[in-house]
Design brief:
With 214 residues, the chain is mainly alpha-helical. It is 50% helix and 4% strand. The protein is globular and about 45 Å long.
């Protein structure tokens, strides 16, 4: 399974339930983002020393690869949201090993910086410059939130942790990704959606939209 890099992709037109360029932010967006960061943080802290090389549902990634991917995504947030940087100006600053000798501490540091950047006064009203063009920081935050939620499930399954996701985060993520799920699969950055069971709950439907079988 391949996956996305949030600063490199979006929906077909850069719009979502959290608004495209200039769109209004959901008043609960920052709370959902903080909740998703906390969920993924709990899972990172649950990784045992012998599990960092374990496989994940993202078949090309180990647990360390998955945590590194999410850590790298959080590192992008301060320059893009706080500083108004572009992907071109940041360049390869976050390429390579972003976890170092202490993956948990590296994640914690990056997550705290991401949270602070999005929560700065007026941050969600700004425009961010991503590789596909300019879009609202609110849209970017919504995508990042959904990414954290789905990857928290990936990490949970990989390490044998509780796979249940908070209902509020599931509902938010379904609303976020449903409008452009087909375009994500068409981009080659996600595997195709799978058909959920007819009696699937909201979490199973969300996972199915992004090619995961619960």
């Amino acid at each position: 399974m391949t996956d996305d890099q949030r600063h490199d992709t979006s929906g077909a037109d850069g719009t979502s339930g959290t608004g495209g360029p200039g769109g209004a932010a959901d008043p609960a967006l920052l709370d959902r983002h903080a909740q998703a960061l906390g969920l993924f943080t709990d899972r990172v802290h649950a990784v045992r020393a012998d599990q960092w090389d374990a496989p994940t549902p993202c078949t090309e990634w180990t647990v360390r690869d998955l945590v590194a991917h999410l850590t790298g995504e959080q590192l992008w947030v301060p320059p893009l949201v706080r500083d108004g940087a572009t992907t071109a100006s940041v360049g390869d600053a976050f390429d390579g090993d972003v976890l170092g000798s202490d993956p948990v501490a590296s994640w914690d540091t990056a997550a705290a910086a991401s949270r602070a950047a999005f929560r700065a006064p007026g941050a969600l009203d700004r425009t961010v410059h991503l590789s596909f063009g300019a879009t609202s920081a609110a849209f970017y935050c919504g995508q990042m939130t959904t990414d954290l939620v789905v990857h928290a499930w990936d990490l949970s399954r990989a390490i044998g942790a509780d796979e249940s996701l908070p209902a509020a985060l599931v509902d938010f993520s379904v609303r976020e990704v449903e409008p452009y799920a087909a375009e994500l699969a068409g981009s080659g950055l996600f595997v195709a959606a799978v058909e959920p069971p007819s009696d699937a709950d909201a979490q199973t439907r969300l996972l199915a939209l992004l090619g995961r079988r619960a």
